[in-house]
């Protein structure tokens, strides 16, 4: 496997992107850096701005020699925004410096997912330079709000593309899916995410006279036990992990006063659910548990993401075979982990795979990517382009 072709440029580009403090939903100069690279390749570039979010939609058409070969579009999907670096003193190196030490590139976004973005861009650059007459279309959709609310990014761009009757056949999402080696895990779907903000109402009073009060914290304890022991899936889903629930926060309104029984306590609950478990059924189950415990409550729901699943097809098999041949192991298809913007592209009927860096340091202090892994990612993305477009039989 030759992964030493033009690899210096992928390192430099990754550093340039990391050096931009693009905390969601800002882009800083990331969109300008990406624009400059794609302009060199004669990509048609459109900045699609929705409120404060800058999105890039760019594409390049190959010069087809054989007009009878059907043109297919491969989309590289990614984001330039990152989560906050947190407490700076916990970093070995400044989080937006892009320092390389012992062949490891450090910085917020190195793994999630500026490293993968750099690898995608350089892979596309090398491929287009070497194959100007490829029979297909390469596209990039890059947002700056994936780590935030996600309301003005990929979802809005996809809505616009659908109105234009744009077709995306295949999609690579650069999320950090790998666990121990680059390419050992590929995602072809994700669970949905539903948050419930639950407030239990009681009666405030003095802790020395509990008989005149009703402690909502005490009242919720049996219900919490019921919630934690609930099996949320009515049907086992062989393609997804089971639906899980986590209580992420509990807070009362007594302002840390230790001699007051509060009159309310609020819980934040998050559920990750699969394609065979509906939001309505989850809501019904929770209401049933709360009512059976005779609780006086209010509840607000926020649906962050619906689950999606991309059925493995020709494109997925191409990617698997590339990894088997070059990395000497067979990748595992999974639908684990958090949400991704792949769920929006799925609405376009695309075959989607998620393939990126190791995920062991994402959202942590000292986020990083090994230089060798960065080069392997570039190689894999470029091989995917070669196998998909140069072997024309894949497109018939």
UniProtKB/TrEMBL annotation:
Domain called Peptidase M20 dimerisation: residue spans: 188-297
Pfam families for the chain: M20_dimer, Peptidase_M20
Catalytic-site annotation from UniProt: 81, 146
Keyword line: Amino-acid biosynthesis, Cobalt, Diaminopimelate biosynthesis, Hydrolase, Lysine biosynthesis, Metal-binding, Zinc
Matching InterPro entries: ArgE/DapE_CS, Bact_exopeptidase_dim_dom, DapE_proteobac, Peptidase_M20, Peptidase_M20_dimer, Peptidase_M20A
Free-text cofactor note: Binds 2 Zn(2+) or Co(2+) ions per subunit.
Coiled coil: none
Family: Belongs to the peptidase M20A family. DapE subfamily.
HAMAP family: DapE
General function of this protein: Catalyzes the hydrolysis of N-succinyl-L,L-diaminopimelic acid (SDAP), forming succinate and LL-2,6-diaminopimelate (DAP), an intermediate involved in the bacterial biosynthesis of lysine and meso-diaminopimelic acid, an essential component of bacterial cell walls.
Subunit structure: Homodimer.
Protein name, entry field: Succinyl-diaminopimelate desuccinylase
Lineage: Bacteria, Pseudomonadati, Pseudomonadota, Gammaproteobacteria, Enterobacterales
